[in-house]
Amino acid sequence: MPQIVLVITSAEDVTANLVIEALNERQAYVARVDPADVGPELMFSAYISSHRPEWIGRLRSPSRDIALEDVGAVYYRRPSPWRFESLEKSARDFAVTEARHGLGGLLASLPNCRYVNHPANIGRADFKVAQLQVATRLGLRVPATVVSNDLDAIRKFVVDHEPVIYKSFRGAPRATDGHVAAIWTQRITPQDLDDSLSITAHLFQEEVRKTADARVTVIGRTVFASRITTPDGALDWRSGDWGELVHDQIYVPEPIKKALRAYLDHFGLVFGCFDFALEASDNGGQKSEIWTFIECNPNGQWGWLPDSNAMADAFADVLLEGWWP
Amino acid sequence: MSNDRPMQPWGLGRMTQRLPEVLPPYETTSFDPATQLTRFYDAGGAVVDMGKGTNRSFVTVTVSRGGGGDGSGGAAQVADDSENDSASD
Questions:
Q1: Which ipTM score applies to this complex?
Q2: What digits encode the pLDDT tens for the residues A225-276?
């Protein structure tokens, strides 16, 4: 009988706290585990054979000793990077890869278990290129986009579609010296382009003349949506002071809601954070808004949104749905 | 491309200036075995309510980003809600 919710995340994850509180209110039994703790602090053992055709075994943290087959749901949040700090480089690389496949693979293969979200599906849905393809197939409007390392192709795109923005796929590289940096979405001109584009992949999009952004968070069948405006009309709302963002409730048109559910189904996701750009449209005095799909983060942050308490409840409900008495 | 600088991908040239990391609003943490909740404390040992205002957005936005799909992702402290994945095997 399943009876446990396994929460896979780092110790410092405040957002997981919100969901664990909601699970505790429902008297669910929660085991919070960070796979990077593997070692004496996190021991595991799992067994499978033709006679025991599904993984059985145990997972032991300092505060929990659970049977893997009792896990009814996994809330996969933000586990720490693997550590193994005491090992020298090649031993560390070996330990990381083996742990990723052995422990990570096991935690992604628990029998009869609901995943919110399954890490492999998060991985698949993380590719912006795949996101845009699925979004257009579902009838969502997307900005004209070029992905290339070819200066001529990129220059032609920029000239044809000005104004154009550049956006990195995964953000700035990790710094190790106590500094941080970011690559914000930014407007560029043909003069900004040069041969160093050929070194790697770059993504450019026509700029949507947006009046606001919309963040639509889908958790199970529940849809939460905020219109986000910045005091200075910034192109990338993440670049400013998050405390100054204005969030207003917004109604999501039914065809878009339908497309978002189909989008999540396509990638096998239960939860997704969708970003849209909103454009004002005046159709013969009939004011409306055009929604343009920007991206979907399958493991996005939501703890900062005004609805976050209700979202935590929605996570608890979707985790427990169908198996919790 | 100028010749007096090391070659780097065009996109990296669009990076912001490097800024000092913002310090988290807590100094230490403890783990409550009964509830499986992490508690956060300031330097004086007082409990920090991470659910409140800027504390909540600090942690959910700027630091809690470890973990790619497989737990191998970077934990860089950047005000960016997507994860980078510089440490995959």
A1: 0.88
A2: 999 988 777 777 777 777 778 889 999 999 999 999 999 999 999 999 999 9
Chain B residues touching A13 at Cβ < 8 A: 38, 64
Q: Where are the domains of chain A?
A: 4-117, 119-143+209-298, 144-206
Tell me the C-alpha distance between A147 and A169, whole Å.
10
Give the residue among A117, A124, A82 at the shortest CA–CA distance from A103: A82
d(CA A104, CA A59): 12
**CB-based contact B54 A243, cutoff 8 Å:** yes
Answer whether A304 sits within 8 Å of B18, measured CB to CB.
Answer: no
Q: Which residues of B touch A181 (CB under 8 A)?
A: 15-19, 78
Strand A71-76 and strand A4-8: pairing? Answer: parallel
Burial class of residue B17, CB neighbours in 10 A (0-12, 13-18, 19+): exposed
Q: Which fold has domain A4-117?
A: Rossmann fold (3.40.50)
pLDDT digits (tens, 9 = 90+) for A199-235: 999 999 999 999 999 999 999 999 999 999 887 777 7
Q: Which of B15, B70, B77 to mutate to test the interface with A (most CBs of A within 10 A)?
A: B70
| CATH class entry, domain A119-143+209-298 | alpha beta
Do you find a cis peptide bond into A163, omega within 30 degrees of 0? yes
